[in-house]
Amino acid sequence: MESIIEIKDLSFRYQADQEHYDVHNISFHVKRGEWLSIVGHNGSGKSTTVRLIDGLLEAESGEIWIDGDCLTPENVWEKRRKIGMVFQNPDNQFVGATVEDDVAFGLENQGIPLEEMKKRVSEALSLVGMAEFTKKEPARLSGGQKQRVAIAGVVALRPDILILDEATSMLDPEGRLELIKIVQKIRQDHQITVISITHDLDEVAMSDRVLVMKKGKSSQQALLENYFLGQI
Fold this sequence. Notes:
ATPase-coupled transmembrane transporter activity, ATP binding, 25% strand
């Protein structure tokens, strides 16, 4: 299976004069269609790494290859259209007055025709089990419902890669499991590649491989069964 993402000797510091690297000389790959979980203690560089992949941050050195092309300032916006990211707090992603407005926001920015937009919004909300909430205000939804809407907004854009940055961490155990199952279904139905940053073992259990990060470095990669057997 070919790689959709390749990271080569990537390094980054939030301040150019700081001695400590937030991400230091990491290399790994993500295969097309797989689910990779990134785990590690707080401050290990997990979120910084996915923000570099998504082009939200610019690396100090190293290379990020996405779908066969090296990420550059010239193509970063084109490559970002291949990636959808869901963050820890869904309230930070809401911009619409209603659920359907919010899901449509990204499509409007891309200039998607109205009828196609309506179709995608309807399909995305149905996929995450939120079709009956189209006219609701996002602020009136539960935490789990908000995350479903956030995922719908990303899925409607039809990305090749879905990144979950601790997207289940604010949910109760039942809500986490429901959301994980939704992501698994989206992945299977649409052949989306998933990268999840998580501390949740149920979420890790859905993945194909695990990347362990320590102090800004990728310490180990392993197949899921080896991770749970403690062989990394």
